[in-house]
Design goal:
By secondary structure, the protein is α/β, with parallel strands linked by helices. The chain has 17 helices and 15 strands.
């Protein structure tokens, strides 16, 4: 009899890895009945033709967000003390005290953090969150769905959303094995894993060690090292267009060499547009020297600001926008859904541009998969004022310590050096690719094309 796997989507983040790749096809070939247990507004049955079971009840306990916010802050305090650091607290965002409701919640969070920032205190908060969510109608609703459909495993595609807590608890309380995929390279040091499944799937040995370090309640035998489906498309040559087709599709000039500028969200890089402008100035300077260069600007899929518009207009002689093929199915950042077509678009942009310029993003790995360099901007802009976050903070984060050395990316520490560094990359006198590949292996693992297969092998082992 076929085994039934519930692929649980607490939000839209997991779609990219588990609905738009070959993950479903591989699972079916292994004889699994796959049902997407869907907590998102994305219509999986209508759009992709896959079986889905929609979670209609999405009501959290009113106090859950208070305790999950307190959990994160308390855990980060524990990490700072335990590892003798100050960096962990920089992962916190300021709380809002505007309005009675916000003020009450934030003050309650502050009280909990003041009294629970110890290992024992964090355990008590974790238990309280479970108690709150077990008392909800959503928990009972999910339990009912599980009893009716009887899956052999619930595989959660993202452990960060509060929406994941009740469904995972319901499965565990019914004795159904649960697993979760750590979806991003910075999830663990940020204390963002809100669920405690029976098993964890991670990208690499490096990430496994992080998981055991930051989640002392996890045992090594609960962890599967599999890689991530996120980068598989970069190794699929069938997605690549010829240079002529790619250039014609996007109205590019065949004699021009293009540099990619990959935009960031407003939290990571609030002054991102000025770095794009700096690159445009460098390109104009080099074009004066006889280079024939342009910039492809790929915006961050979840950035809806108009902050780049003036720069795009001012430098329209050298910058062309190619927007990601994502689409909104809701209003928040995690309801902007990727598409299969965007995998191909991103792979082609990597393949047909000279290198990428960016602030602190994992695009370094996307480009190194195509043997292309990544330039990281790391200098302050004159527009930096009090209350605006300095991008230099990004490079101090723990996940950047995974770099084999500082040559794993090409850092620009001074705006005056930018044109020289861009020229050196174009003239093939500068590259981060050799060390970047080592960094890729550390973070992503050395089997980037086999992640989906490896995950199914892990699921199989759990179910058996």
């Amino acid at each position: 009899m076929n085994k039934k796997a519930f692929i649980f989507l607490p939000d839209g983040v997991g779609l990219r890895n588990f609905a738009l790749t070959n993950f479903n096809t591989i699972g079916k070939a292994l004889g699994y009945e796959i049902v997407y247990w869907n907590n998102t507004p994305f219509k999986i049955k209508d759009e992709l033709g896959f079986d889905e079971l929609v979670i209609e009840n999405q009501q959290l306990h009113p106090m859950t967000t208070v305790f999950t916010r307190a959990r994160k802050r308390s855990e980060l305090n524990v990490f700072d003390k335990k590892f003798k650091e100050t960096v962990y607290n920089t992962y916190n965002f300021p709380q809002s005290y505007k309005g009675i409701k916000n003020a009450f919640k934030s003050l309650y969070v502050d009280f909990l953090v003041a009294t629970k920032s110890s290992e024992r205190g964090v355990v008590s908060i974790r238990e309280k969150i479970k108690k709150l969510e077990r008392s909800t109608a959503k928990y009972e609703y999910c339990k009912k769905q599980l009893l009716e459909h009887k899956p052999d495993i619930v595989f959660c595609t993202n452990p960060r959303p509060t929406q994941a807590i009740a469904p995972i608890l319901a499965a565990q309380d019914l004795g159904i094995p649960t697993a979760s995929f750590i979806f991003s390279w910075d999830n663990l040091p940020k204390a963002t894993t809100l669920i405690e499944p029976d098993y964890y799937f991670v990208w690499s040995d490096y990430m496994k060690n992080e998981l055991l370090q930051y989640c002392p309640y996890v045992k090594p035998e609960q962890v599967f090292v599999t890689g991530t489906p996120q980068f598989e498309s970069h190794f699929d040559v069938s997605l690549l267009q010829s240079k002529e087709d790619f250039y014609n599709t996007h109205h590019l000039n065949l004699s021009t060499r293009y540099i990619c500028f990959s935009g960031d969200d407003i939290v990571t890089s609030p002054l991102d547009q000025y770095y794009l402008e700096d690159l445009a100035v460098s390109v104009r300077e080099l074009n004066q020297l006889g280079y024939n260069l342009g910039i492809i600007y790929r915006k961050c899929p979840v950035d809806f600001t108009d902050r780049y518009d003036a720069v795009l207009k001012k430098y329209d002689d050298v910058i062309i926008s190619i927007d990601p093929l994502w689409r909104p199915v809701g209003t928040s950042w995690n309801e902007i859904m990727p598409t299969k077509e965007d995998f191909a678009l991103q792979a082609n942009i990597c393949h047909h541009t000279e290198f990428v310029g960016n602030i602190a993003s994992s695009m370094v790995f996307d480009f190194v998969a195509h043997d292309k360099s990544c330039l990281f901007f790391d200098y302050e802009q004159p527009q930096l004022q009090k209350g605006i976050r300095d991008i230099g903070q990004n490079y101090k984060y723990i996940h950047f310590r995974s770099m084999p050395n500082n040559e794993a990316a090409l850092f620009v520490h001074n705006k005056k050096e930018l044109t020289t560094i861009v020229k050196a990359i174009l003239d093939e006198n500068k590259s981060n690719v050799p060390v970047g590949k080592k960094w890729f292996d550390v973070v992503v693992g050395n089997e980037p094309t086999k992640a989906s297969e490896n995950i199914w092998e892990g699921i199989n082992a759990i179910v058996k």
